[in-house]
Amino acid sequence: MPNNQQLSITRLIAIPAAITLGVTLLRLAGELQHWGMPWFSSAAGGGGALVGISWLPLIFGPWFAVRLAKTGNGYPSGKRAWGYLALGFAVMMAGGAVSFLVQSQRMRELGILGFVVILAAAFVPRKGWRALGRTLIAYAFAARVPVLIVMFFAMRGNGGAGWGTHYDAIDADLAHLPFASKFLYDAILPQMTFWIAWTVIAGTLAGLTAVAIARRIVRPAAENL
User: Among 59, 61, 43, 41, which residue's Cα sits nearest to residue 51?
Assistant: First the structure.
């Protein structure tokens, strides 16, 4: 049974993961070619460029949720699903507050604790809807591991000067650190904690909303039959 479930998740996320990888590579190409705003930006954090993968959970979350619900893998309780989503969001915010507080006081090592709490938030919503939670966690890592690889090569490029993209834009507070520390704080921790949690929580929110809307549409139609 576990193997069948794993294969099912793999098939479910295959196309979304491929699309997400395509967007990542398109963004990298756009920044290297200096195609500019509003579509591309090489500023740290992405500069609010429209081409990016952070908003894709708002599309793929509903797609996952509706498909799971149609195949009998929906949530057992709507209140429970929404409740654990809210709890996950609260845990993510708490972890973010811890991370920001200790980093503002230059206690970066302790900031790792905040990032661990943020990552834990990604596993909370699945308590309310296990199938969707597992799917979004798998998709989140499939989306963010390629970004981490791109960041590694971008930060190492040009003899350590970087490629001039947002993937290698380093915060001034990290500029004096050796490469391993820069990669840890600027790439591994945010990509493998915050963006994982964001993907799961945003995707769950969008997915629950989509299912709720779909049920409201289907119910009146069934009553008129």
Answer: 41
In tens, the pLDDT along 28-80 reads 999 999 998 899 999 888 888 999 999 999 999 999 999 999 888 999 999 99
**Token pair for residue 99?**
């991370």
Nearest to 114 by CA among 132, 125, 100, 128: 100
Distance (Å, whole) CA 3 – CA 104: 45
Q: How is the chain split into domains, by residue range?
A: 2-223
| Cβ 149 vs Cβ 156: under 8 Å | no
- Per DSSP, 193 falls in state I
For residue 19, which amino acid is it? I
Q: Map 202-216 to HEC letters.
A: HHHHHHHHHHHHHHH
Which tokens belong to 216? 């409201």
Cα–Cα distance, 148 to 65 (Å, whole number): 27
In the numeric block, the tokens 């963006």 are attached to 195
User: Which residue type sits at 178?
Assistant: P
